[in-house]
Design goal:
With about 375 residues, this protein is α/β, with parallel strands linked by helices. It has two domains: about 280 residues, Spore Coat Polysaccharide Biosynthesis Protein SpsA, Chain A (Alpha-Beta Complex), CATH 3.90.550; about 80 residues, no CATH class. Helix content is about 30%, strand content about 25%. The chain has ten helices and 17 strands. It is globular. The protein starts with 9 loop residues before the first strand and ends in a 7-residue tail after the last helix.
């Protein structure tokens, strides 16, 4: 499939400000999940940028991260121009990130089409992701807001869903395009099974594609306080995004933005949403348990680093330094780093956040 001509105006903004606490102790404050090589030999951030490179070269890529991580991100993705790695001076969720990205995208490309991409996902079939993104660009160019919805493979209760309306592409189109009826909160297991069997719901991958001007108009309408906070940057009163004056204004104005997500702040107010169905071996790599989906062919365990195992099954065994020797483990995750070791049943992977909070309460900031 040839990319749609609109991809020549595509600016991909990778949202890389998360902390990734569910992957402690490998993921820490100074090196969060997106800067860790979890699935392949590349960091998840580098994977994300490489995935879109066929239609979005580095000169049209942005990375929006925390201000404290700017230097580390620039070192991790040296092919991205340094000025294109922009630090948020305060954590304000994804809607302010989208507004900032739209302001910069409009300066990078005339009539820019903006794609907002999480930095910490894995896609096993990147060519299918690029095809879906290209189709999303074509619909975004018409003024629509487009999301990529992942074809569900199990009754997942940890994701939000997209309820589909009418199909807008031919019946046999691959990937198919649908109108969005509504976004649905994380369901219980019975509801998730109904969604899986019904074929009218997709997982919300958190990928949004829209023209930069549409993004700014949507923010101005739905979140006027956010728009006003960043208005001097949008109006060009402080120069280009790569100037010192812009950076100073960003430091001053960004903390004034309300903390709200794109989904709640913008998308729930729209009726012209479209979704492109994505079937590309997608994973949000959400917790240690999710790595079992990325085992090597015919492997019983997910293994990274210096690991020696005997009679283990369905376990995640990761070492970053010391030899990790495991015997007879079933459904267990063991993560060994220089300063800390984590061991837990893979079924309790979500509880890692509780350990991080306990460390924080005990003043063990050296391990966070």
């Amino acid at each position: 499939m040839q990319p749609h001509p609109s991809t020549e105006r595509l600016v991909c903004a990778v949202m890389a400000g998360g902390s990734g606490t569910r992957f402690w102790p490998l993921s820490r404050r100074a090196r969060p999940k997106q800067l860790v090589a979890l699935v392949s030999g590349e960091t998840l951030l580098a994977e994300t940028l490489a995935r879109v490179a066929p239609i979005c070269p580095p000169e049209r890529a942005l990375v929006i991260t925390a201000a404290r991580l700017v230097d580390d991100v620039r070192a991790a993705v040296p092919n991205v121009p340094a000025a294109h790695v922009i630090g948020e001076p305060a954590a304000r969720n994804t809607a302010p990130c989208m507004a900032l990205a739209a302001i910069v995208a409009a300066q990078l490309a005339p009539d820019a089409i903006l794609a907002l991409l999480p930095a910490d996902h894995h896609v096993g079939q990147p060519e299918r992701f690029v095809a879906a993104l290209s189709i999303a660009c074509a619909h975004a160019d018409e003024g629509h807001i487009v999301t990529l919805g992942v074809a569900p493979t199990r009754p997942e209760t940890g994701y939000g869903y997209i309820q589909l309306g009418d199909q807008l592409s031919p019946d046999k189109s691959d990937p198919a395009v649908w109108a969005v009826a509504r976004f649905v909160e994380k369901p219980d297991v019975e509801t998730a099974l109904d969604y899986l069997l019904g074929g009218r719901h997709l997982w919300n991958a958190g990928v949004f594609v829209l023209r930069a001007d549409v993004a700014l108009k949507a923010v101005r309408t739905a979140l006027p306080e956010l728009y006003e906070a960043l208005a001097p940057l949008e109006r060009g009163e402080v120069g280009r995004f790569d100037s010192d004056a812009f950076a100073e204004a960003l430091t001053e104005r960004f903390p004034l933005c309300p903390s709200i997500s794109v989904d709640y702040g913008v998308m729930e107010h729209r009726t012209d949403l479209r979704s492109v169905r994505l079937d590309a071996s997608w994973s949000d790599v959400g917790a240690w348990r999710s790595l079992l989906d990325h085992r090597e062919a015919d492997a019983s365990n997910f293994i990274r680093g210096d690991v020696l195992e005997l009679d283990c099954a369905n376990s995640v065994l990761v070492s970053e330094g010391p030899l990790l020797a495991a015997i007879g483990l079933e459904g267990v995750a063991v993560i060994a780093t220089e300063g800390a070791v984590l061991a837990l049943p893979v079924g309790r992977s979500q509880d890692v956040r509780a350990i991080v909070e306990l460390l924080r309460q005990r003043g063990r900031d050296d391990l966070l």
